[in-house]
Amino acid sequence: QNSASRAGLSAAASKPHQGILVECDLIQRCPAYLQKKALKVVAAKLALAARCDFVNVDTGRPRSAASGQKFRQEIEFKIQQWITPDKAPVLKALPKPDLTIKKRRGGRRMRRIKERFEETDMMKQANTRAFSAQAGEYGDDAMGITMGMLDTAEGGGSVRKTIEKRKVRQTNTKASRKRAAQMAAQAKSSSNGLASSMVFTPVQGMELVDPEANKERVREANRKWFTENAGFQSALPKK
Predict the structure, then answer these.
(1) What band does 238 get if pLDDT is binned at 50, 70 and 90?
(2) Domain with 34 in it
(3) I need a surface site. Which of 40, 44, 57, 91 has the fewest CB within 10 A?
(4) For residue 52, what are the CA distances in angstroms to 42, 46, 57?
(5) Residue 121 belongs to a domain
(6) Greater model confidence, 19 or 18
């Protein structure tokens, strides 16, 4: 004998506190695994029935059991649906196989369409992953945003590697400015190998022209017209 029976106490297992609604016949007829679910439904319908009685008394109408009977029928229908086992799935027979040979599209036109939309060699390399190759960022690699074998030297390296050209910052000093001015003067004064003093005229044919003589003629005209001592002169011919 255990200590509870020796002390004169009952050995029966006590039920948890569930209230007086658990003694309802609707709940007692339910299986044990559905009693808690049915108890919640009965409590909700009981609250609605109490409200219906209060409204009838408050408005002076006689009490009626129509609402309570309607709620009871709804509860019984729900419990019956819970208890009813699910229907077994219906196994549908497979359709009759079509043993006729279907005509497949072919010919030069279909071959050209397939060639137009087929995967290129570069895309094949991009969709191929190298085994045990070190990838870049984990996020891009996990999402599949990689170049595949195109980005590796083992895959042939079909992608052209572009080298970033950085401009060297020049120092702004007196010596650097002087050097830049000298280089600009040399580039301006130097002429290419195609320069020549030979001129082709439509009347006289080929003749040699002195470039210095033309420059001296321009300087003489500038001294005549655009010097400080020239004064005001008219370009119109004298009458």
Answers:
(1) low
(2) 18-83
(3) 91
(4) 15, 10, 9
(5) no
(6) 19
Contact of 49 with 41, CB cutoff 8 Å: no
Q: In the prediction, which pLDDT does 80 show?
A: 93
Looking at the structure of the chain, the number of domains it has is 1
Q: How far is the C-alpha of 144 from the C-alpha of 153, rounded, in Å?
A: 19
The pLDDT of residue 161: 47
Q: What is the pLDDT of residue 147?
A: 75
Consecutive H or E run containing 201: strand 198-201
Q: Rounded to a whole number, what is the distance in angstroms from the first to the last CA of the chain? A: 157
Q: Are 129 and 148 in contact (CB under 8 A)?
A: yes
In a domain, 33, yes or no: yes
Give the pLDDT band of residue 214 (cuts 50, 70, 90): confident
Instruction: Locate all alpha helices (DSSP H) within 101-173, ordered by sequence.
Output: 108-117, 121-126, 138-143
Buried-state track 117-156, b at ≥16 Cβ within 10 A, e below 16: eeeeeeeebbeeeeeeeeeeeeeeeeeeebebbbbbeebe
In the chain, which ranges are continuous DSSP H helix?
A: 3-6, 25-28, 35-59, 66-83, 108-117, 121-126, 138-143, 174-189, 211-225
Q: What is the pLDDT, as a whole number, of residue 119?
A: 85
Q: Write down the residue that tokens 């077994």 correspond to.
A: 88
Question: What number of other Cβ atoms are within 10 A of residue 39's Cβ?
Answer: 18
> H or E segment at 199?
strand 198-201
Query: How remote is the C-alpha of 130 from its chain's centroid?
Result: 25
